[in-house]
Amino acid sequence: MTWNNNVEITDALVKEHGLSDDEYALCLKILGRTPTLTELGIFSVMWSEHCSYKSSKKHLKTLPTKAPWVIHGPGENAGVIDIGDNQAIIFKMESHNHPSYIEPYQGAATGVGGILRDVFTMGARPIANMNALRFGSPDHAKTKHLLSGVVEGIGGYGNCVGVPTVGGETNFHPSYDGNILVNAMNVGLADQDKIFLSAAAGIGNPVIYVGSKTGRDGIHGATMASAEFTEDTEEKRPTVQVGDPFTEKLLIEACLELMSTDMVVAIQDMGAAGLTSSSVEMASGGGVGFDFNLDMIPQREEGMTPYEMMLSESQERMLIVLKPGREAEAKAIFDKWDLDFAVIGKITETGNLTLRFKGEVVADIPTQPLADNSPEYDRPWVKTPARAFLKPEDVAAPADMKQALLKMIGSPDLCSRDWIWQQYDHQVMADTIQKPGGDAAVVRVHGTEKAVAISTDCTPRYCYADPVEGGKQAVVETWRNLTAVGATPLAITDCLNFGNPERPEIMGQFVGCIEGMKEACIILDYPVVSGNVSLYNETNGTGIHPTPAIGGVGLFTDSSKMVTIAPQKEGEVLILVGETKGHLGVSLYLDIMEGREEGAPPPVDLLLEKKNGDFVRAQINAENIAACHDISDGGLYVALAEMAMASEMGMAVTLDYENVPQHAFAFGEDQARYILSVPADKADAILSKAKAEGVVCANIGRVGGKDFEVNGMSSISVSELLTTHQGWMKDYMGLE
Amino acid sequence: MKARVHITLKNGVLDPQGKAIQHALTALDFGGVDDVRQGKYIELDLAETDREKALASVEDMCKKLLSNTVIENYVIEIE
Amino acid sequence: MKARVHITLKNGVLDPQGKAIQHALTALDFGGVDDVRQGKYIELDLAETDREKALASVEDMCKKLLSNTVIENYVIEIE
Amino acid sequence: MKSAVIVFPASNCDRDMIVALEKITGHKPHIIWHQDEEIPDADLIALPGGFSFGDYLRCGAMAARSPAIQKVIEHANRGGNVIGICNGFQVLTETGLLPGALMRNKSLKFICKDVNLKVENNDTAFTNAYGQGQVITIPMAHHDGNYFADDETLKELEDDGRIAFRYVDKAGQATAEANPNGSRNNIAGIINRRKNILGMMPHPERLIEDAQGGIDGLGFFESMINAIN
Ligand SMILES: Nc1ncnc2c1ncn2[C@@H]1O[C@H](COP(=O)(O)OP(=O)(O)O)[C@@H](O)[C@H]1O
Ligand SMILES: [Mg+2]
Predict the structure, then answer these.
(1) What span, in angstroms and rounded, lies between the C-alpha atoms of D172 and D164?
(2) Which value does ipTM take for this structure?
(3) Which residue of A85, A398, C62, D218 has the fewest C-beta atoms within 10 A of its own C-beta?
(4) Domain total in chain C
(5) Domain extent at residue B21
(6) For chains A and B, what is the number of CB pairs under 8 angstroms?
(7) CATH classification at residue C52
(8) What are the per-10-residue average pLDDT scores of chain B (79 residues)?
């Protein structure tokens, strides 16, 4: 292939690069001339949906991002919050949806690698991974292969780098048949006085490239992530990147070693759009220019062109600005870890990204206008029509309650995910004190009494039925899960997965979800500190369910206060917190038992959530509670059964079905509810305290025996519950 | 019949294993190892006795299971 | 010079990967797969131009690193 | 007890091992980089878990050829104590200090879960704090822990009481269901002929505090203190 940087920039070429006429006109204006091919490539990836957030920016700006404990909100590589003692927690969630559909193992693996880099580039040691996964219907021909590959890829990468994968969520729904979602979250720990940002500074300072060599991987990957799938997606296959967790582990150690010195001025990982976006962000962020000699870039393949080098998405690479004269010292560190290290240029005062290749300037772009003038659209949107509430009477009672419960807990959406988390090393680093299977994962802050609780949640069927309520509910569910283990919720990250924003209905879902999230964040004092948007999750015009996955982070100052969902002793009293109205609209019961996805989702009363949650957390912190579980998917009976299974103890429960039909009481998904298991001698005090605070609470039974017994239902042995609960996924995956 | 299948990474696809082996060989003082690529080698014993049919069947196996055609190539020999 | 190395499990060593592939092929309705063995295939680019020397050197690599002689055999081809 | 922990590129249970050794012996272990050619005087050398060199080619293969390992071999040949946990066990078999090999788990999956282990021989430097036949719960987390040795080696291991730990069910039976990875004879850990080297796949260093879910791993370290001090 002959390389010509100065080919004629035809309309077709511009279109191929995904730039609209207006965008190209803006490009001409910024440059004051026709772009070279390399420049066109740079504009194209910088202004792709993935890098520029052009459809979402306007709405994202409305999210609350501040609180006294927020050190850095959105805009940096990841969000940073204060956890006291000069320590900070740094976290973010990101999507790797399209690559994971094309090549599940590598797509998911590189997703984990990418999110790790976002966190350690800020100076944090990664301490926990989470993964939020959505697959198509289990009956769909590809689902098994995708589930198997994605889980193996997440494990393959996370296990090797030695960061525990401590939790996540997994849904199946036909709306993901052609577009699965793989959202990976990482949480890291740093000292507040050792947090690194990306804004470059210091005219003349050297710019360093470290990590793996650059190959032709994933060229156009960033633009692919912004394009809708069509049948010919097969052709885009070679753009998949292969992850190298071994190199990533070395890169983590080498970067943290480098950061423990005082040599680093700024640092940025090369993520989507690789060298292009990292250098433009660093330069524009610092209001300076970069002058690079591309001949210095470590290259894996022969004959790479500037265009390819700038657009490559090879993994495991970082860009660093050093203090002057420290190159040799820095190089010694990367030599020790056997990583490539190259001085590729320096900071200039021009404000331009100037790229030289074999003595010729192949690109010279003012970075500030490129970054600041990136397109921003106010896309037309329509509000999702409101749905009517479904009354409990509109949903038939099951022929047999026991069989219904077994069917529920043995269903794809509610069965145990142990087949998944057993493939993840969830204990490496020896600080995991709440393993997967509970409401939130809990990881100790190494060497202290503190611990961090993490939960990822979203109920896409609610978001589809009512984006505003669904957006609220997603935020609230993480908050509730953190509360249920006893942690104080601090902040969230999000990963907003939607269909094609150029369709007003989809844009309406996006706007609605953000609106709901915003309300929840404000009332719960639970700001958004980082996030990611993934649009165009749609195949042949059918979009996914709107899926704003939320990753919530909470803190324990004393991790010994933590509780799990497992009752501790026979004789403990079970207390139901919150009111049960029997809301079956878009419930899992309706879906699993009747194959319907109708009605409005359960309304979220944010003030009630806060009241009930604060009460529960205070009781846990006062050490009055032995176990706690929030009630979400599947409702009360499912939550009770999960507690019984976790403790391998039975329970005897008596409920009053006078005002609510039994099946609605059992499986309704009313919000703001928890089940507490408390020592018998503490029950009365808790109930009267609740009454005094206006929190609805009821004594509903006791822990003990080997059977799960609820009035109005034949009893079930806990071992039968367990066999049913643990059966589905293993059976399903058994014959891959 | 016996079939032998070689599965190798496509050109341009990163081969972390090969790279690490090359590095380790160099550390063990083996000079002049310019490149290393690692692939898989699979031997199948087939009941099929017709060469053409065996080939077609193994071809199908490669597409459906043995190789990951997104990043790998395969070569089949029937003997 | 190019060297190709095939590393296969010794007879009598259980091959979990081969077994799993065989099982998966059967589940995918490929009949008559009597046995599957999985090995490694390594390609080396060597600066050496003398065939004999290259062979000796790769032989040494196999012994020292590329294969585990407790469980594996190797075959080298130089081209 | 003076100890040392060897760190390879992409070791990842090195910190866990260092923390455990320090907590239990009261002394910080020496930390040895794989390229170091000297190992300070130590009663015990530990090879930690992880994915040394990415576990590329074969688990433990590249680590087993590192300069520091030559010193570990010398230490072992002088009768010094060596433990290898998980990846460390794989490294020990690759060096030949322990017989056999660790192959891909039968399910081909990485498996992280708690397993029951039976202490098969409590008359060793690594197991004396446990009761003979005691069943303990220890986490495992590996992709390649399927222990293989030929019949002859296996017989020798069995006859000489060199099986340290076996995977068992709660009742202590070495059933096929209790075998998580396909290991021959349900073997989870073995010792060498001279009884100064132990390799095991599960991770006792992950279970030494109540907060971690139990303290069954403590006995492992206490045994060494009993034997060495
Ligand atoms: N992909 C996954 N990886 C790891 N853990 C998972 C995954 N999916 C679900 N889990 C775990 O399974 C448990 C149940 O998940 P979920 O039903 O979503 O919990 P909740 O309703 O409390 O949010 C949680 O502990 C969660 O962390
Ligand atoms: Mg929950």
Answers:
(1) 14
(2) 0.94
(3) A85
(4) 1
(5) 2-78
(6) 41
(7) 3.30.1280.10
(8) 94 91 93 94 95 95 91 93
